[in-house]
């Protein structure tokens, strides 16, 4: 199958491009509003809805849900992100997919640098509305967990898809990693360490970065061929 039709559905490419551009514009809008000192009306209600009324130190739901959120948030943390990223890189190198492995490294390192840059530029305070259920020590926007996990896990998923031809397998891979990214982002809000808009912005920028890595890989392949 030719590289340009590898996704199997011709109209999927423009749809993917539209989605990426929309995500970028949304991320820029959120960042722009925060730079101007504006906020978002949905942030406070969502955070409060996730805590027991009158007991803001207690999250809603069963006790095990809090531990599950802590476990999920760890999957977007520095240690596991680099561990899984390195594992994906090693696997692709083993398969002879060195270019794909290099793009995963670029996704991980690049998104980390961009996240740090945006945090320093915007310097949004962490939510003080509810007690934090996880340790944090830097600025709030964007959520590094949401952004870096989106960039790295989605790039990993897309590069792994390049090793398979069965559409069902590729869909399953992307769906699994997409769900993982969503759960990681949601865990940050549930634990009270990020405003929902932090996570939304992180998802936007991370997804765009993953799309850029995938597009760059495809473009490089076409030039080589």
UniProtKB/TrEMBL annotation:
The keyword Translocase does not apply. Coiled coil: none annotated. This is Phosphatase PAP2 family protein. CDD domains: PAP2_like_2. The chain crosses the membrane at residues 12-32, 72-95, 102-122, 142-161, 173-193, 199-220. Keywords: Membrane, Transmembrane, Transmembrane helix. It comes from Sphingomonas immobilis. Residues 101-214 form the Phosphatidic acid phosphatase type 2/haloperoxidase domain. InterPro entries: PAP2/HPO, PAP2/HPO_sf. Pfam families: PAP2 (PF01569).
